[in-house]
Automatic annotation (TrEMBL):
It holds the Pfam family BldD-like_C. One of its GO terms (molecular function) is DNA binding. One of its GO terms (biological process) is negative regulation of DNA-templated transcription. This is XRE family transcriptional regulator. It comes from Streptomyces longwoodensis. InterPro entries: BldD-like_C_sf, BldD_C, Cro/C1-type_HTH, Lambda_DNA-bd_dom_sf. Transmembrane segments: none annotated.
């Protein structure tokens, strides 16, 4: 593998990891030690070659198709990543439980899984939003509007949802 290709592959790996709001140590924690921070970091820097098998396992861990990790494959030519979906946990705490109970429980579960208890904000993925939409029996775009109206999501979330629904 050429060093340029390794660096491009590493950049893709880093982009996926950061999109998911994970640090290198967060990957190690979430994988319960299966993926060591130092190894993932060396893949991301292009210092260490990754086998096809390990790349497939890492793609599975991140919940993305392998082709998302390969250089030169930019689906839809997406130049900039869609804005992150960031829940404002401080505002969420002030939304009545009868409205936000499922979201509060879901956010608490994610925090527990990540060991992330900063209590201010929580990044979620598009998949999380789709799951919440099923729980709330609404489309992701309708749920997004509701979360924006509660002050739990920033209005930029509209763009993230619209971008994802088009693709």
């Amino acid at each position: 593998m050429s060093s340029e290709y390794a660096k491009q592959l590493g950049a893709k790996l880093r982009a996926i990891r950061t999109q998911q709001g994970l640090s290198l140590h967060g990957v190690e924690e979430k994988s319960q030690g299966r993926w060591k921070a130092v190894v993932v970091g060396s893949y991301e820097r292009g210092d260490r070659a990754v086998t096809v098998q390990r790349l497939a396992e890492l793609a599975d861990f991140y919940g993305v198709p392998v082709q998302e990790l390969l250089p030169g494959t930019t689906p839809g030519g997406a130049a900039e990543p869609p804005p992150k979906l960031v829940l404002d946990l401080e505002r969420l705490a002030h939304v009545p439980v009868e409205k936000a109970g499922p979201l509060q429980r879901y956010a608490a579960t994610i925090q527990s899984q990540r060991g992330d208890y900063n209590g201010k904000v929580l990044s979620i993925r598009q998949d999380d939003l789709r799951t919440l939409a099923v729980i709330y029996d609404q489309s992701p775009s309708v749920l997004t509007e509701q979360l924006i109206s509660w002050g739990v999501l920033d209005a930029d979330a509209r763009r993230a949802v619209a971008t994802h629904e088009e693709g």
